[in-house]
Amino acid sequence: MAADTLQAVAPALEMRGIGKRFPGVLALENVDLTLEPGKVHALMGENGAGKSTLIKIMAGVYGKDAGSIRIDGREAEIRTPRDSLSQGIKVVFQEIALIAEFTVAENIFLEGYPTNRAGSIDWKALRAEAAALFRRIGFNVDPAARTGSLPVSQQQMVEIARALAHEARVVVMDEPTSSLTPHEVSLLFAVIRRLTGLGIAVVYVSHKLDEVFEIADTVTVLRDGRHISTRPIGEHTHDTLIQDMIGRRIDTLFPRARGPAGSRAALSVEGLSTAAKLRNVSFEARAGEVLGFFGLMGAGRTELAKAIVGYDPIVAGTIRVDGVPLRPHDTSTGVGLGIGLLTEDRKSEGLMGELAVSRNMSLAALPRFARAGFVDEGAERGAVQAFVDRFRVKTPSLRQPIKSLSGGNQQKVLLARWLMRGLKVIVVDEPTRGIDVGAKAEIFALIDRLAGEGLAVVMMTSEMPELLGLSDRIAVMAGGRITATFARDEATQERILNAAIG
């Protein structure tokens, strides 16, 4: 009886003393992780802490160099992704690995389709079994739908259904809410609770503290490839969790070193409309203030950001910078007037990954360093070094390819790019997406500092804490329109969400 009880409570997965080394880098050193059936275990740490390496070892993408793995109390070897899947581990990576042209049902049973007596694929059974899996997780997705046509939230459900099809004991979710609306996040959490109700252990990897406190039972923190702590979530506060993650206290995540904003409108937008999304948008952003924009997915925040700087065409309306109209409406005119955009998708729309840090930073200001048609590299290097020092950009060298820097340091380089050019208005779209909590604090301080130096900062964000923590005023969008504007002391999460619903 005692042996049966012991077997019943055996961890779904135990990793002991895990080590992994890459050329010149010790990625993991003596890391432990224990996952209990029916529990949500958050895995947290800054970028570079080792989270991705650890979950790739679980997934069989990397082999471990040291340590042991036990599944349901038994020694196990995971050398390949097939080993991982066959032993009941399913990792839902941030980049979802589904075949877009296949149907939902085809993706779920990709490793083996049900067949009829003739040996052909039994399409009716395929769809019926897929529907049954969705009923188990309490989510309705059409098994016959083309997977590529589904929103990200439903594609995640397809990945979860695949896990159930393989009788997963462990489901790992890597930054699962990075592209989800608040409503979709609540639906995902309902599915996670359904999974734990089935006895499945869920690993939840996220930078979002509020989500972790809502969904996790236990949290493990890694730092610099080492295990720092494993504690029940109830023993943590936001401050203690941040301290474990970055090794120091952050007394205030949202600094307010700047004084009150001035009355001068650095940016005026009147009756702005685009063919596809924006409808009669009007607002002013004052010199020295942070004007936050919030909206649910599809509300038009990113479209507004791109229209303001001349990137997306408009069909009506006027944009003025210090009273001067943005005419013609294009990016070169916008840059000339002093508007810069920190894009939501820094990898594809902001960075030139193979180029050095120095050239990525100086790109918008290269004419400043031109001498007789050639770039004065000494002057360029001096200007770049000044911003690297000012923004505390962590890079081994100015010649380092920017793709090798962490997300937070990449974001600092992009901010410096525009400031080196000279700005009156900067539009920042999701400035902390994919950035760990320590780097977030630095980006928040930089935004506060820029506003304090007299810039108008227009910030588009889906993160409620940073919206409320940084903004002087908050504009809420729904359906391509501004539905409400709140002063800092009037804004509450409830009022903002009500306006966002429209």
UniProtKB/TrEMBL annotation:
CDD domains: ABC_Carb_Monos_I (cd03216), ABC_Carb_Monos_II (cd03215). InterPro entries: AAA+_ATPase, ABC_carbohydrate_import_ATPase, ABC_transporter-like_ATP-bd, ABC_transporter-like_CS, P-loop_NTPase. The keyword Lipid biosynthesis does not apply. Coiled coil: none annotated. Gene3D superfamilies: P-loop containing nucleotide triphosphate hydrolases. It comes from the Bacteria. Signal peptide: none annotated. Residues 13-249, 248-501 form the ABC transporter domain. Keywords: ATP-binding, Cell membrane, Membrane, Nucleotide-binding, Repeat, Sugar transport, Translocase, Transport. It holds the Pfam family ABC_tran. SMART domains: AAA. Belongs to the ABC transporter superfamily. This is ABC-type sugar transport system ATPase subunit. It comes from Labrys wisconsinensis. The lineage of its organism: Bacteria, Pseudomonadati, Pseudomonadota, Alphaproteobacteria, Hyphomicrobiales.
